[in-house]
Amino acid sequence: MTEIAVYVFPDAEELDFVGPWEVLSAWARQWPDDGVSVFAVGDAAGEIRCAKGLRVVPDYSWDTAPPFDVLVLPGGRGTRRQLDDGAGAARLRSLSEAGVLLASVCTGSLVLAAAGLLRGRPATTHWGSLDHLQRIDPSIEVRPDDRFVDDGDIITASGVSAGIDMALHLVSRLHSPGRAREVRRYIQYDPKPPV
Q1: In terms of CB atoms within 10 Å, which of 8, 44, 73, 152 comes out highest?
Q2: Are 70 and 4 in contact (CB under 8 A)?
Q3: pTM for the structure as a whole
């Protein structure tokens, strides 16, 4: 079984986690024989208000969550409080050392950088935070034009909707490109912006 945790926290950007959630949970529900499970994890039990006002209740807290193989870390204004969170940084480093695949969306990469996990690596983030990412750690090879960057045990995605692309990449990486195409068709993701 592949267990995927999606982190939700106060002021997380909704599409940063809901986009990947839709992709990954569609995969888990429509193709149950693939052995995938997706759940939400938060800092504590109880309701969380996100950046645009959506209220969500995570399935688990960090203390009660089962072991997992992948962590999706969204961005949003709430990441700013996490940049100086020593306990949160230690948790991410511990997860990385345990072999958990870390996948950030938008400014979630700033949190990974602040934890020292992007040192000397390629990464991306929301276009408006590329300079901030570089300031946190000048050794990062910032990739401003990439929708996502897969550097093995860490994947970073650029802003907001890029999390959907990153999640489809996860399906492809963890299962197959064919399954990722099936999931993409199921959610009818065929971007052609009207403007």
Answers
A1: 73
A2: yes
A3: 0.96
